[in-house]
Amino acid sequence: MTTEPWPTEIRLLDNGRTLRLAYDDGASFTLSAELLRVRSPSAEVQGHSPADQKTVGGKRNVSIISVAPVGNYAIRLGFDDMHATGLYTWRYLRHLGETAPESFAAYLTELSTKGLDRDRPGEA
Fold first, then answer.
1. Number of domains in the chain
2. How are beta strands 7-13 and 28-32 bridged, if at all?
3. Phi-psi category of 64—alpha, beta or left, where left has phi over 0 and alpha has psi -120 to 50?
């Protein structure tokens, strides 16, 4: 039976601008609030199918204002733009940590393609 890495530390840094995660296998990641917000696992952002996925602009300065446990498998992050519907599972957070540079680069490309930017609110 394979067990997945378990988070041993979840800490807000920089006045909620970053989230630090450490795991029992020694891995650690520091994720920006912006990346966590624009890659929220919520239906509002992800939609109900890949075709429904939203690209959200204007989140360069977003901050995390709350971290709440959800059972023993996830956390709910609350952002200062009042978004608080995504459940970030341990698996999803680990994935974001491992792919953060690629995911953020893809986000920047999506913004550019859709005529959005990191500073003006909007979604497409």
1. 1
2. unpaired
3. beta
Could you tell me if residue 124 is inside a domain?
A: no
- Token pair belonging to 97: 């940590």
Nearest to 79 by CA among 69, 92, 64: 64
- Find, among 56, 84, 80, 57, the residue nearest to 70 by Cα: 84
79-93 pLDDT tens trace = 999 999 999 999 999
Q: If we measure between CA atoms, which residue out of 27, 7, 29 comes closest to residue 18?
A: 29
Percentage with pLDDT > 70 across the chain: 97
Its domain, for residue 97, covers 7-119
CB 121 within 8 A of CB 57: yes
CATH label of the domain that carries residue 94:
3.30.2020.30
Please state whether the predicted TM-score (pTM) of the whole model is above 0.70: yes
